[in-house]
Design brief:
The protein is α+β, with helices and mostly antiparallel strands and 161 residues long. The protein contains 4 helices and 9 strands, in the order βααβββαβαββββ. The longest helix is centred in the middle third of the chain and has 15 residues.
Amino acid sequence: MKIRPEIRADAPQIERLHMEAFGPGRFAKTAYRVREGGDFVQALSLTATHEERLVGSIRFTQILIDGKEGALLLGPLAVFRDYSGHRCGLRLMNAGLDLARDQGYELALLVGDIAYYEKAGFKVIPSAQILMPGPVDMARMLSFELQPGALERFAGMVSLG
Ligand SMILES: CC(C)(COP(=O)(O)OP(=O)(O)OC[C@H]1O[C@@H](n2cnc3c(N)ncnc32)[C@H](O)[C@@H]1OP(=O)(O)O)[C@@H](O)C(=O)NCCC(=O)NCCS
């Protein structure tokens, strides 16, 4: 499996991947709505391929937290079901987070399952420190410090950068 920057020609297959992974209800989710209208950071969008077939994708969106820059929302992250279990998701995350750190971002957030994302180093955010503009289960609000001590420098409401 190879990981490379996303290119324009990947878009239709990524759309199919999101449909398979998240279903038609995905647009109603808070994390999706926050990203809506926000541009993905092209320099952080990565595609996983296996023998030329696109098997996974990760994207990030720049966000503000109480108006402050330096944070990203991780997602969507998805891997085709018939390619799961090859560490593709973890490798995409590790590569994306490394790039984000190198580009000077401080904090990555996501709404997801701690049982999975702790494998990449994500931790649950202390209750109500960072808020999303919509209903979110606080046990699923996770963060990853790209720079030491970054989490204590951010608090408040998430909005689009
Ligand atoms: C979640 C997803 C990205 C994982 O991709 P993947 O390439 O199959 O996963 P990986 O191979 O990187 O998984 C690494 C490890 O995490 C485990 N894992 C995978 N999904 C998990 C989950 N939801 N909860 C706990 N552990 C999980 C794997 O079993 C594996 O365990 P191991 O370390 O013991 O081998 C992929 O299954 C997917 O696209 N799912 C649909 C979209 C989705 O639900 N995304 C959000 C998840 S909250």
